Amino acid sequence: MEGMFTRGLAGVLTIGVVIGGGCGISHDGFDDTETEVCLMAEPELVTDPTAETRLGFSAETVLSYAEGTHTSGLQWLPPAEVEYDPVFALDELTMGVERSGAIRLVNRPLETKSARGESACPLALEIDVKVRLATANGALDERFDTVLVARKAQVAELRHEFAGNAAFRELARRGLAPAGATLVDLELTAKLSPANVSGSISGALEPRVRDVEDSAAIEVAVWPPRDTCETLDDDNVEGIPRTPLRSGTTMAEAPVARLNQTDPVPLLWSDGTITRVDLHAKQAGVGCTLSPTGGTPVFAYPMKLDVATHDGRMGGEFDGTLWVISDPNVDKTTVAVLQTKTEIHSADELQARTGLTDIDLAGYASVMLRCSVYFAPNDGTPEGQILLTGGDCDTALRPDCGTSELLTGRFHSRGIEAIP
């Protein structure tokens, strides 16, 4: 069962490239004359937000996803030499965007020169907006006017320099600059799309030492947090680009609801005993889209799975990932599987984390507990297994070292007779 999904996932996923980009205006790599001409070009006012522009889309299309309130996890990134409360490292960002003025078509310089020889001053749609930026811990609570820039219908960017306002003082007070340095040139860049919102705050550390002119560029914060997608733990997705999803955009709802509404599921242990198991899942963070080249997109969501068997043998909450593959070319079939993997290093830890007390771990340096829940493509019916396997072992104590399955429990919502 687990192997079936693994083979299917491996077949769908092929290494690809996600195209990303920064925001802001930099003229590096361009002829100064070309840039000056670009900046001198007269803007074209757009009076009807619903009208299609020469770019092939309207301002209303951009505002439909860019306006409103956006929330995301945020990760503060102080310099390595700064010690700070870990609670301050992870935060919650709220960004409100509202149109405040004119809409215009302009020729804007690109950040870097195109390898395909495209114009250094392509046409862009600009929309004047007001932005409110706040973090849950109070480090930022800023309001500012800026410009929303879109060269494509589904991507808009904005930028803001914090020079001289309270954000500097507050971030310095919070300890994001080490002793002997001043945080300067604080700047925000953000990218919005119908599915994602991302961005960063960067700056520079300027030494407070006379006759020292060097400053070091640093990132102060990023959203969503860097580890949102990087912690996905599966060999089949290694190296495949992934993009964090906007908070609230989820394909996890249907399989999670189906699992949580399912009655206790019949379970068959490997020793022949039969019981039932309660399975409940909840999403534990922002999901990701994995984008293999030429393959169907895969959605991955961090999850917590609560497992409790009615015989009292096992119970606990485990971290895992829900993988969802939706293929519109195959009768809109959706395949979903929830997998958890927990490494355990002693009998005491096994009992504390799972409740299992009847497993002989003598000779094993570690064991791995895996829980897999597979959702049938047609109706989402859950089935799966609980598998405890041994890791490295001492052959003197474990002559059967090659036999790694220590405990298996298979379950199926349609009954014991449906278990393969």
What does this structure look like?
The protein is elongated and about 80 Å long. It starts with a helix and ends in an 8-residue tail after the last strand. Mean pLDDT is 77; it is low at 1-32 and 112-117. It folds into two domains: 2-11 and 229-418, no CATH class; 43-225, no CATH class. Strand 15 (315-327) and strand 16 form a beta hairpin. The chain contains seven helices and 19 strands. It is mainly β and 420 residues long. The relative contact order is 0.12.
User: How much is the average pLDDT?
Assistant: 77
Order of helices and strands: HHEHEEEEEHEEEHEHEEEEEEHEEE
Question: Care to count the β-strands?
Answer: 19
The gyration radius over C-alpha positions equals 26 Å
Q: How many helix segments?
A: 7
Helix content: 10-25%
* Secondary structure category: mainly beta
- Choose one word for the global shape: elongated
Question: Major beta sheet, specifics?
Answer: 8 strands, antiparallel, barrel
Provide the low-confidence segments as ranges: 1-32, 112-117
Please report which band the strand proportion falls in: under 5%, 5-15%, 15-25%, 25-35%, 35-45% or over 45%.
Answer: 35-45%
Distance between the termini: 9 Å
Quickly count the domains. 2
In which order are the strands of the major sheet placed? 2-3-4-5-6-7-8-9
